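Following up on my earlier thread - several people asked me to post the actual chain instead of describing it. Fair enough. Here it is, all 337 residues.
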Amino acid sequence: MLTGRSLIEPLNFTIEEMDGLFSLAERIEEDGAYLRDSCRGKLLATLFFEPSTRTRLSFEAAMLRLGGSCLGFAEPSSSSAAKGESLADTIKTVSCYADAIVMRNPKEGAALLASRVSPVPVINAGDGGHHHPTQTLTDLLTIRRLRGNRREAGGIGGLTVGFCGDLKFGRTVHSLAKALVRHEKIAMVFISPAELRAPEYITRQLEKEHVEFTETGNLEEVIGDLDVLYMTRVQRERFFNEEDYIRLKDIYVLDREKMKNAKQDLIVLHPLPRVNEIAPEVDADPRAAYFKQARYGMYVRMALLSSILGAAPGAVPDGKAAPGGFSPPGGKGAASC
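Reply from S.P.:
Thanks for posting it. Predicted structure:
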């Protein structure tokens, strides 16, 4: 199973392993007492070198609901990073106290570095514009629950997914697109201005895997073709030029008028926070699923934490080798305290 495994990018887990996580999350959703107190005595460290509300609180809520405890910081100024401590030393130190580490860092590749020096599992909660794999798990579970096809592997397939907004810097878009590639009969539509197009490495991967995709700058033109619309905000913190941000920030606004042209069974997702890209009037539309999406995020993180900490059914006991050749915490090459 997943005991002792780190999660750095969406493809670290197989479709079958992700399907197992989703089934576990669904069981947790259906039975509020399931796995309660299963992580009692376990400690999760949340290290956020970049602001977060949903991801950090979702992880902390998940751990507390499992009976575990949390420690950490919500900004780098309250850590020894402000004194010049290296990331590697921070991780080695924190791993002396915690059973798992969740980290967000503005530098791409930071999570991978952390996983290489940590004797305990590391979960990437976002590294710059690179990956956000637990948001991807959240997105996939939401699609599976609200728009899924049980005949397809993982409960997802045969859908047209539109990504709208900041596709250049949006790590949630990059992660979800990479994960969707493994599902059958998926088509993707990328909706953005030229300045915020999806990175070439994403589109090259889609071409390599023979995944159908199109690129456009016009949301109204394609909204009627979509089964899933994934809205994103234009991220001010990723821009070097304030004028470019101001020019692009309100280029797409999903409102009631645009929703009239969408399918009746469309679902609208957003990793949140939103700014102006979804009008509040859309919240009352039954196709708006972004707040349900936030709740599914807690369930899937409960499933993930209980699995990597060895508390889920079928987990490999601590100190045993996990299937597939993965080493448990404290394995060869890991730092120790």
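The chain has eleven helices and nine strands. That should answer part of your original question.
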